[in-house]
Every structure is written in structure tokens, then in C-alpha cells.
Amino acid sequence: MPSEADARTAVRRLTLTGFRCYARLRLDLGPEPVVLTGPNGAGKTNLLEAVSFLTPGRGLRRARLAEVARQGAEAAWAVAAEVTSGGERVRVGTGWNGGEGPDKRVVRMDGQPLKTVADLGRVLPVLWLTPAMDRLFVEGASHRRRFMDRMVNALDPGHAERASAYERAMRQRLALLKEGRREPAWLSALEAVMAAQGVAVAAARCDWLARLAPLAAEGHGPFPGCGLSLVGEIEAALAAGTSALAVEDAFRERLAANRGLDAAAGATTEGPHRGDLAATHRAKAMPAHLASTGEQKALLIGLVLAQAKVVTRGVAPLLLLDEVAAHLDAPRRAALFDVLAEHPGQSWLTGTDAELFAALAGRARFLTVADAAVCGEEILPNREDHSS
């Protein structure tokens, strides 16, 4: 039987080479939450971003791989970690050296190359919350789709590959239509791929929502319940009980019928790439985009906590929370920290003021970051004023 510490999903050792502001860094950690404090620009978020690259995708900043390499150094970077996951210790690593192509990174597990980045998500699911996500409910639908698909991918690591296959076929079809090349066989083949992959994408979103919605509606203490629903014709058909095969056939037929319309519009006018996530503040029966800024932040945190519970039914996810405490009042901070301390996956938090994390004293590893250096590694003892 694994020890209690090894049963917790956690990064136990993190090594960076040529990553952002870090020429080289090694951190040895325990399973407890990690609190990174220091001035703006010190390199706190860069550490969270490094951890986010241990999962599929482009990291929490959605950066191009070349942008991640340390300025003024060789065009290459690497992130390596020893992690505990599912009661086992695993070595994972990823990096980029430019030679593999501008958008391709190398991924290894226990020294062996992985065929796809998606395999990382099965070992180390990661969820994150950044200040850029605070406007999730008021920005355009593309922001919510990205949020939604990242959440889906934490449950189903193959989701991103299906979404990419759909988007590739969509771009190729649209390029043919714009060029006026109405080649029926080629278009039909691309539309078949779009139909199959697009319905699979929508079905995965529906499955994710069915798992998340009940937990999100409950709320988490001071974090209010959030009502969720999907917006999109394909998603609606699947939710109504229509078989995936029938939905796929209908979507393929509509794509063929819409060739002229899409050519004139210069865009694909129907499909899961136009879907959206609708959210409401349940206690107030109010659309989330009409809630106050503080309420929206609380709703978003509640969503991430609910998602963490859903994912934990498999392997508990790591939680990366960038500047999450700055705009929360003391009761909400304390409630959040209580959840994070009990969560079976390690949490990483950043902030400029260590006092904001006083309620985690004795339960977290506190590190100070300054000028791309990390020091002060210790677990602070409990303090009498930690609830203030």
C-alpha cells in the first residue's frame, strides 16, 4: 500500500533548464500545498507555467514554445519532474529545442518517449486559475470554449486531439471553399472527418457537463452554486437523446448543404467550434455575466473546485492558482485554503503578500521568489493570528 504522502498527486521534485527567467532551478518538495510569494516579475507565475507544461496543451499562458525559452540563451528549454500519481512515483519531462519544429515538444515518462502529449494527462491532470480568466463570463464565447475544453481534457486526455483533428479538417475545407475549388470528393472526405470528430468533441462536452453540473450547483461554502448549460445545435441534439450516429449524419449533410453559405461568409457557420457555456448565479437566478466582479470570481473558484472533485474520481489533479487570494475577503480565503489543504492533489498558489496566506500556516510549504531565485523553503508553524 502506498503511504499517505505517495497517495497524494504531487510534484516532489521540479527541475527547470532555460525556462523563462530560470537558467537552472531545482526544487525538492513534499505533498503539501506550495505557496510562492514575492514581488511582481520575480518569476512566480513562471513556476506555475512550468508545472502546467507537464500536462497536454500550451500551458497556462498558451505561449508558443519558442517564447518560453530563456531570453538571451540557447533556443531550448526543459521541464522535468518526479511526481506521485495514483500511488506511484513517476518521472516525467518535456522540452523543446527548435529542431523538432516550432510547435512540437518532446515528452518523456520514466526515460521513455511518449507517442502523444495526451498521455501526460492520464498521469498528471492539472487545473489552473489565472487573473486572465477572471473575465470568463463577460468575454466572448471563444474564451469559455477554451476553458470548457481544458476542463474536458482533464477528464478525457484524448479530447484535445479530437478537437485538433476537427479544426484541421475545418481549415482545409474552408481553404478549398475560399479558393472556389468545389471538389466534391475532397470536400466530402473533409466533411466526414469534421462530422465524426465534431460530434465526438460535443459528446465529450456533454459527458463532462453531466458530471460537473450537479457539483457546481451545490456550491462550496462561501463560493456560490453555479448553474451550467451548453449552447450549440449539436450539443442540444445529443442532450435530447439523439444517437451520436444520427447527429453525425445530420451534421455531415448540413456541412455539404452549407458549402455556398460558408464560402460567402468566409467561415464555417455551424459546428462545435461555435458552441458556448452558459452560467448562472443560482442563488440569485442571475446570468453570471450580470453578477458583480467579486461574485464572478467566487463563481469561477467554485467551478474549479467542483471540477477538481470530478477529476479526483480518477487521479486527483494538481491545482495551480495564480494570484487567487488577492481579491478574496478573509472568510473566503480561509474557506478556500481549507479545501486546498484537504484536496488529494497538491496546490500551487502565488501572491505578492505572504500575509494573505496566513490561514495556511502549518499546512503548506512557503517559498519566497525574487530575481528568478527561490529561497526560504520551510513549512511555517501555526500562528495564533492565522485566521485574521
Write the layout of secondary structure elements.
Blueprint: H1 4-7, E1 10-19, E2 22-28, E3 34-37, H2 44-52, H3 65-68, E4 77-85, E5 88-96, E6 106-109, E7 112-113, H4 118-123, E8 126-129, H5 141-155, H6 159-178, H7 184-218, E9 226-231, H8 233-239, H9 244-257, H10 259-265, E10 276-281, E11 286-287, H11 293-312, E12 318-321, H12 330-342, E13 347-351, E14 365-370, E15 373-379
Parallel strand pairs: 3-13, 3-14, 8-12, 12-13
Antiparallel strand pairs: 1-2, 1-4, 4-5, 5-6, 6-7, 9-10, 10-11, 14-15
Helix pairs in contact: 6-7, 7-8, 7-9, 7-11
Let me know the average pLDDT. 91
CATH class of the largest domain: Alpha Beta
Low-confidence stretches: 379-388
CATH architecture of the largest domain, by name, is 3-Layer(aba) Sandwich
Distance between the termini: 39 Å
Principal-axes shape call: globular
The helix/strand series, from N terminus to C terminus, equals HEEEHHEEEEHEHHHEHHHEEHEHEEE
Number of domains: 2
Helix proportion: 25-40%
Q: What is the CATH H-level superfamily of the largest domain? A: P-loop containing nucleotide triphosphate hydrolases
Structural class: alpha/beta
Proportion in β-strands: 15-25%
* Rg (CA only): 22 Å
CATH topology of the largest domain: Rossmann fold
Instruction: Please summarize the sheet with the most strands.
Output: 6 strands, antiparallel
Structure description:
- The chain is of the alpha/beta class and 388 residues long.
- The chain is globular.
Question: What is this structure, in a nutshell?
Answer:
With about 400 residues, the protein is α/β, with parallel strands linked by helices.
